[in-house]
């Protein structure tokens, strides 16, 4: 059987053999020491003196950008579905001294020395990852080293299938993700379409739901080696049992990229992909509410070498040394994700999304699938004669951050007819139903202002639209109200909002 990961590592690198135990290894044992205070050492006055200077003093330009971004997030409404606001503890871990350490390899099999605490950290993160998703450690393993969801996906493909093997993922214009094999008629866009042959499946144009029957029929013709489920803009849950049946019918692996919904899955608020999938990948910064990174879960009980294939695909096949500071922040995030408070948060995310969806639907706006079952809403603006690009621009000027997005039936993801709204960030700022209704009313006003601006522009060109919006008193007033409203709520990671440096509002 083909093994895409390197068959033999360079002599200088350790072989990354899977653990012989059915459970995770235990941290390295060390004697219990009495804690003592370290003595104070004089700071150097040589070429190293700058290593001890705070950011604000050393680099005021970068500090100002940090301050401006903090003010922007505090003063605005973040509705990007692929974003969230992480915890103070995760921010502290992500900025910790673990950033100094290089640690190619796995716990107990590192290329460099001095990794005893990095080993303990990574083992702890693995343990918490399996616990957060209730994954049986005798059946599931996890690699916590991927730098992002994109690298996690490509490493998973590298481990599972050969170059130029076939895969099927939801098409990008239908709500899928770039890394699931997206290409256009003239160009292969993502690495997954360059190195593998991909064929997209779709949603039904009339309902916006996944067309499982068409997927099954096309799979019989295309004969994929892997089927990918998961999306970046799909407002409904997934039928993993049906997907498993389709994959089994073609002898294909079933991979779930749960990046967008992983926090909801951990909280038990969505269907569980671990019941049916061979591999589950995720980012850690969306609904999971952690740092920007990725995870790969794998069924190590089905194929004896699955663990080593995944691990070798991550390193050394696809990336180098792990970002240990980020793994520390992931561990913190997974601890929080395994609490009753996080489960309540996940339920509130869905409730808030459904509250906003109902408001917009009752106003007569067209939503893909007429609503949502998760954290996001896909708003079809085509019946209004607007593009997602124009509404995104206007909302940006008003302090509401959204993104243009393709909707079912769009010819290209480059010229989308809709916008995507996510409720994870606002829920992280402790906004509840009444607050969400206020935000929804802001969005309603924004769209009406966009229609007025398009009419005033006298053309459908984006540049003319932006000029019309820039001189709109209605947009100026909306921006003022949005910022006053947003600043009434706390910003995660900032315990004392009075210490946030203020800047003049810009329109």
TrEMBL record:
GO terms for biological process: glycine biosynthetic process from serine; tetrahydrofolate interconversion. Its EC number is 2.1.2.1. Its cofactor is pyridoxal 5'-phosphate. It comes from the Eukaryota. It catalyses: (6R)-5,10-methylene-5,6,7,8-tetrahydrofolate + glycine + H2O = (6S)-5,6,7,8-tetrahydrofolate + L-serine. Keywords: One-carbon metabolism, Pyridoxal phosphate, Transferase. InterPro entries: PyrdxlP-dep_Trfase, PyrdxlP-dep_Trfase_major, PyrdxlP-dep_Trfase_small, Ser_HO-MeTrfase, Ser_HO-MeTrfase-like, Ser_HO-MeTrfase_PLP_BS, SHMT-like_dom. Pfam families: SHMT. Residues 55-442 form the Serine hydroxymethyltransferase-like domain. Pathway: One-carbon metabolism; tetrahydrofolate interconversion. The modification N6-(pyridoxal phosphate)lysine is found at residue 286. The keyword Nucleotide-binding does not apply. One of its GO terms (molecular function) is pyridoxal phosphate binding. Residues 1-24 are annotated as: Disordered. One of its GO terms (cellular component) is mitochondrion. Interconversion of serine and glycine. NCBIfam families: PRK00011.1. Belongs to the SHMT family. This is Serine hydroxymethyltransferase. It comes from Calocera cornea HHB12733.
């Amino acid at each position: 059987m083909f093994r895409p990961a390197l068959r033999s590592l360079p002599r200088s690198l350790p072989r990354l053999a899977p653990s012989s135990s059915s459970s995770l290894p235990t941290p390295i044992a060390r004697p219990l020491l009495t804690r003592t205070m370290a003595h104070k050492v004089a700071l150097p006055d040589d070429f190293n003196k700058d290593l001890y200077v705070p950011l604000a003093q050393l680099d005021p330009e970068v500090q100002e950008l940090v301050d401006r971004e903090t003010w922007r997030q505090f003063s605005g409404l973040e509705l990007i579905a692929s974003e969230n606001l992480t915890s103070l503890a995760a921010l502290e871990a992500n900025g910790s001294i673990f950033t100094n350490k290089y640690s190619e390899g796995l716990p107990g099999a590192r290329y460099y020395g001095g990794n005893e605490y990095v080993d303990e950290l990574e083992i702890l993160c693995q343990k918490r990852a399996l616990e957060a998703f209730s994954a049986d450690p005798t059946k599931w393993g996890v690699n916590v080293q991927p730098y992002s969801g994109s690298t996690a996906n490509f490493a998973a493909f590298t481990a599972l299938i050969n170059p130029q093997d076939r895969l099927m993922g939801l098409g990008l214009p239908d709500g899928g993700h770039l890394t699931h094999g997206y290409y256009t008629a003239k160009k292969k866009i993502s690495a997954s379409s360059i190195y593998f042959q991909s064929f997209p499946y779709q949603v039904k144009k009339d309902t916006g739901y996944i067309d499982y029957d068409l997927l099954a029929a096309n799979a019989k013709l295309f004969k994929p080696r892997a089927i990918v489920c998961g999306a970046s803009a799909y407002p409904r849950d997934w039928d993993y049992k049906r997907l498993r049946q389709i994959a089994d019918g073609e002898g294909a692996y079933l991979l779930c990229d749960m990046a967008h919904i992983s926090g909801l899955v951990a909280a038990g608020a969505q269907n569980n992909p671990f019941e049916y999938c061979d591999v589950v990948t995720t980012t850690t910064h969306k609904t999971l509410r952690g740092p920007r990174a990725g995870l790969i879960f794998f069924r190590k009980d089905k194929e004896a070498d699955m663990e080593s294939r995944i691990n070798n695909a991550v390193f050394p096949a696809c990336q180098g040394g792990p970002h240990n500071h980020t793994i520390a922040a992931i561990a913190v995030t997974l601890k929080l994700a395994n609490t009753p408070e996080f489960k309540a948060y996940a339920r509130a995310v869905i409730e808030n999304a459904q509250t906003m969806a109902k408001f917009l639907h009752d106003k007569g706006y067209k939503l893909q699938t007429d609503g949502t079952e998760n954290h996001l809403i896909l708003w079809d603006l085509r019946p209004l004669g607007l593009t997602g690009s124009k509404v995104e621009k206007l909302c940006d000027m008003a302090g509401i951050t959204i993104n243009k997005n393709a909707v079912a039936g769009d010819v290209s993801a480059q010229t989308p007819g809709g916008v995507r709204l996510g409720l994870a960030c606002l829920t992280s700022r402790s906004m509840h139903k009444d607050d969400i209704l206020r935000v929804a009313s802001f969005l309603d006003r924004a769209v009406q202002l966009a229609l007025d601006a398009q009419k005033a522009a006298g053309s459908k060109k984006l540049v003319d639209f932006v000029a019309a919006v820039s001189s709109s008193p209605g947009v100026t007033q909306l921006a003022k109200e949005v910022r006053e409203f947003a600043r009434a709520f706390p910003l995660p990671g900032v315990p004392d909002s009075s210490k946030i440096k203020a800047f003049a509002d810009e329109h």
